[in-house]
Structure formats: structure tokens, C-alpha cells
């Protein structure tokens, strides 16, 4: 993005980022360059438009934040405008969303831990009872009503865990 802010074109941006830290982390700008045919190794029949190449990259990576960048590139390519300024706005929005995700994650940490403790505690207690008082557990496992009660308790534990997950996970 710094290449567009420095006066470069949108066609120069992917080629300038292929040696960047983003490419070392797995960013697929080099694939975009190949799809566009800017590397002079691609047949004319295999070349795609800029919008399609960036959309394909967005789908490969699967990031909702990258979708915004793809949308900005599509709008800029079709309507024109100051691409660097648009990217700055999108970058600030993505940063704000990232900060908000971190805050939400920190605020819901206790709820997530509570979920795991409440899910694991009954099984840990059952294992402890097997070790300390096997006759007590054999009373449950030796009869049909006891097995039904244990199966029902396991089902309720799973339902409770999923319910707590639904409460604690907040989509940002």
C-alpha cells in the first residue's frame, strides 16, 4: 500500500509487495501478479482482470478484512479516486476492528474459562469417584436407570457447554 501512497499505480502495488514481509508470511501477491500476467510468463488466455485476481486472492486467504481491501480496489479501478487515501481509511478500520476483537476477547476470557471448567468438572469428578469409590459408580453402571442417568447428564453437559459458548462468543 505504501507504493500507492508514494505515487505508484495499482498495477505496481502487487509487484512491489512480493518481496515484502507480507509475502514471507504467506501473502499471495505473487499469485496475483501471475494471474494478471504481469510476470511475462503467463499466456494471454490465462490472464484475468485486476478485480478478479484480487477477489480470487481474497477467497484464497479467506479474510473478511481483506474483503474490504478487495472492495476498495474494485471501486477505485471502476470509478477512480485516491486509492492511497481509501486504503488508509480501510487500514484504520481494520486496525480498529482488530483492537475491538482483542478487547472483546479479554472481556470474555472469564466466561470462556468458566465454560471449560463447568464442562470438564463433572467428568473429572466422575473419574475421581471411579478411583476413590468404585462401588458407588458400579451402582450406576450396573443398572439400566443408572446408565440412562449418566447418558442424560452427559447430554446436558454438552448442551450446557454449547449454550455457554453461544453466550460468550461475540462476533465482531
Defining key terms:
mainly alpha; 76% helix; elongated
Structure in words:
By secondary structure, the chain is an all-alpha fold. Helix content is 76%, strand content 0%. It contains 10 helices and no strands. The protein has 2 domains: 2-106, no CATH class; 109-168. The mean pLDDT is 79.
In short:
With 172 residues, this protein is an all-alpha fold. It has helices at residues 2-5, 12-16, 21-24, 29-36, 50-61, 64-79, 83-107, 109-132, 134-141, 144-168. The protein folds into 2 domains: 2-106, no CATH class; 109-168.
- Number of strand elements: 0
Contiguous low-pLDDT stretches (5 residues minimum) are: none
Task: Kindly report the oligomeric state of this protein.
Answer: single chain
Describe the largest sheet: none
How many domain regions? 2
What is the N-to-C succession of helices and strands?
HHHHHHHHHH
Over the alpha carbons, how many angstroms does the gyration radius reach? 27 Å
Mean pLDDT: 79
Structural class: mainly alpha
Span between N and C termini? 25 Å
Label the overall shape: elongated
Helix content: over 70%
Proportion in β-strands: under 5%
SS element count, helices: 10
Amino acid at each position: 500500500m505504501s507504493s500507492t501512497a508514494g505515487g505508484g499505480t495499482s498495477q505496481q502495488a502487487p509487484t512491489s509487495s512480493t518481496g515484502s514481509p507480507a509475502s514471507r508470511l504467506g501473502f499471495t501477491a505473487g499469485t496475483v501478479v501471475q494471474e494478471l500476467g504481469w510476470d511475462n510468463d503467463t499466456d494471454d488466455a490465462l490472464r484475468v482482470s485486476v478485480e478478479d485476481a484480487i477477489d480470487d486472492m481474497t477467497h484464497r486467504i479467506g479474510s473478511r478484512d481483506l474483503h474490504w481491501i478487495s472492495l476498495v480496489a474494485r471501486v477505485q479501478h471502476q470509478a477512480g479516486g485516491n486509492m492511497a487515501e481509501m486504503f488508509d481509511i480501510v487500514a484504520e478500520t481494520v486496525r480498529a476492528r482488530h483492537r475491538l476483537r482483542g478487547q472483546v476477547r479479554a472481556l470474555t476470557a472469564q466466561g470462556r474459562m468458566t465454560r471449560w471448567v463447568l464442562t470438564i468438572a463433572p467428568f473429572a469428578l466422575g473419574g475421581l469417584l471411579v478411583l476413590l469409590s468404585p462401588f458407588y459408580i458400579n451402582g450406576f453402571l450396573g443398572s439400566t436407570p443408572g446408565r440412562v442417568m449418566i447418558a442424560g447428564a452427559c447430554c446436558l453437559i454438552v448442551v450446557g457447554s454449547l449454550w455457554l459458548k453461544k453466550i460468550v462468543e461475540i462476533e465482531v
